[in-house]
């Protein structure tokens, strides 16, 4: 018989997600960012003190405030819908009907199971059905959904779904190849392995179109 704590550890160590959406409470934004920073600052102070760190030392006494600001303003800033980038689109006046691929988009995210970094590259493509989106907006969409506690499968799906909504087409694809420091630096400590996830919509489900996309990004993985 596995107790509940062991079961939850097994989910985390297996990097399994139980929810296709980020699990946010209804009251997630009832307090301001500044209030969140103050609360997290005290929590980090407690962690460091419990570990036996001397918070009067000049090197570490500012750490609780730095960590709190980093959590709220930076690495988990994508939780706040107010920070969602405006996915402006335009008429495809030049009638470009082929695949558009934005590859090697930098991904910095955080594993929601151990709060350790996920670092890699996203490759995103779409085929216009009449609308196009600015290239930098594709990067910003990746960044927005990456800046939250994540699992890579969910991140891949969210990027595709956001672009499908913005462009009004199912013909969107995303592949992410990333290293998880919860695998590389702890547990099995495999520094070489990386994780590849994919989401293919519309025409990208067709073998020829999928293969063309994977050839563009020079990925040999078979899907």
- As for the CATH topology of the largest domain, it is GTP Cyclohydrolase I, domain 2
What is the terminal separation in angstroms?
A: 37 Å
Mean pLDDT, nearest integer? 91
Task: Look at the structure and name the CATH superfamily of the largest domain.
Answer: GTP cyclohydrolase I, C-terminal domain/NADPH-dependent 7-cyano-7-deazaguanine reductase, N-terminal domain
The shape, in one word, is elongated
Q: Note the beta-strand portion.
A: 15-25%
Provide the domain count.
2
- Strand arrangement across the biggest beta sheet: 5-2-3-6-7
Q: Which segments are poorly predicted (pLDDT under 50) over 5 or more consecutive residues?
A: none
Round the Cα radius of gyration to an integer and report it. Answer: 20 Å
Architecture of the largest domain, CATH level 2?
2-Layer Sandwich
How is this structure best described in words?
By secondary structure, the chain is an alpha+beta fold. It has helices at residues 4-13, 33-50, 63-75, 135-146, 152-167, 181-184, 207-216; strands at residues 89-91, 99-111, 117-127, 131-133, 149-150, 172-180, 195-200. The protein has a five-stranded mixed beta sheet with strand order 5-2-3-6-7, with helices on both faces. Strands 1-4 form a two-stranded antiparallel sheet. The mean pLDDT is 91. Homopolymer. InterPro entries: GTP-CH-I_C/QueF (IPR043133), GTP-CH-I_N (IPR043134), GTP_CycHdrlase_I (IPR001474), GTP_CycHdrlase_I_CS (IPR018234), GTP_CycHdrlase_I_dom (IPR020602). One of its GO terms (cellular component) is cytoplasm.
């Amino acid at each position: 018989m596995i107790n509940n704590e062991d079961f939850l550890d097994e989910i985390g160590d297996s990097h399994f997600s139980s929810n296709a959406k980020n699990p946010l409470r209804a009251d997630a934004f009832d307090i301001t960012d500044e209030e969140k920073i103050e609360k997290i600052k005290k929590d980090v102070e407690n962690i460091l003190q419990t570990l036996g760190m001397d918070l009067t030392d000049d090197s570490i006494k500012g750490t609780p405030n730095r960590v709190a600001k980093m959590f709220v303003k930076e690495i988990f800033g994508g939780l706040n819908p107010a920070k969602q980038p405006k996915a402006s689109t335009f008429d495809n006046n030049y009638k470009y009907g082929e695949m558009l691929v934005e590859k090697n988009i930098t991904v910095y995210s955080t594993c929601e199971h151990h709060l350790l970094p996920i670092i890699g590259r996203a490759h995103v493509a779409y085929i216009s059905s009449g609308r196009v989106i600015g290239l930098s907006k594709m990067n910003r969409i990746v960044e927005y959904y990456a800046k939250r506690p994540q699992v890579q499968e969910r991140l891949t799906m969210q990027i595709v779904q956001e672009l499908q909504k913005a462009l009004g087409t199912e013909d969107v694809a995303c592949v992410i190849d990333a290293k998880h420091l919860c695998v590389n630096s702890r547990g099995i400590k495999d520094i070489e392995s990386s994780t590849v996830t994919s989401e293919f919509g519309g025409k990208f489900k067709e073998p020829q179109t999928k293969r063309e996309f994977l050839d563009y990004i020079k990925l040999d993985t078979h899907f």
